[in-house]
Amino acid sequence: MKLVEIPIPVPEEGQVLLRIEACGVCNGDSMAIGGASPEYPRIPGHEVIGIVTELGSGSTRWEIGQRVGIGWHGGHDHVTGLTMDGGYAEYMVAFEDSDPHT
Fold first, then answer.
1. Exposed/middle/buried for residue 79 (C-beta within 10 Å: 0-12, 13-18, 19+)
2. What are the backbone angles phi and psi of residue 85, rounded to the nearest 5°?
3. With contact defined as beta carbons under 8 Å apart, do 26 and 47 qualify?
4. Considering the entire predicted model, what is its pTM?
5. CB 42 within 8 A of CB 28
6. Above 70 in pLDDT, residue 12?
7. 33, 70 Cβ separation under 8 angstroms
8. Which residues contact 4 (CB under 8 A, 6 or more apart)?
9. Average pLDDT over residues 40-59
10. pLDDT bucket at 26, cuts 50 / 70 / 90
C-alpha cells in the first residue's frame, strides 16, 4: 500500500458519492492488499461510514447529507474494497443497492 492523490470519483447512474468519516480494518482488506482483487490499483476498505455528498443520475434511495454505512456487499454484485474501490480514501462512490446501514 502507498499513499497517493487521486481525483474525487464521480457517481454514475444509481450511485452516490460519500465523504468518508471512518473505515474499519479487517482481514478482508488484507485479501485486496495480498492480491485477491481482479483489478489494480484498488483502494481497500469495506467497513465504511460516510456522508452522502452527491447523487448520481436516477439516485433516489439516499439523500445528500445522510450518513450511511457500507459493508462487504457493494451492490451490483461488487465487493467493496475488492472489486470496487473502498473506504481507505477521503471519498468513494457506492451503489444505492449496496447493503446500507443508516
1. buried
2. -65, 145
3. yes
4. 0.89
5. no
6. yes
7. no
8. 41
9. 94
10. confident
Contact 13, 56 (CB under 8 A): yes
pLDDT category of residue 101 using cuts at 50, 70 and 90? low
3-state percent breakdown (helix, strand, coil) of the chain, nearest 5: 5, 35, 60
Biggest alpha carbon–alpha carbon distance for the chain: 36
Distance of alpha carbon 79 from alpha carbon 44, whole angstroms: 10
Q: Please tell me the distance from the alpha carbon of residue 22 to that of residue 40, in angstroms, as a whole number.
A: 23
Residue 6, exposed/middle/buried by CB under 10 A (0-12, 13-18, 19+)?
Answer: exposed
| Residue 13 identity (one-letter amino acid) | E
C-alpha cell, 2: 502507498
Say how many C-beta atoms besides its own lie within 10 A of residue 11's C-beta: 22
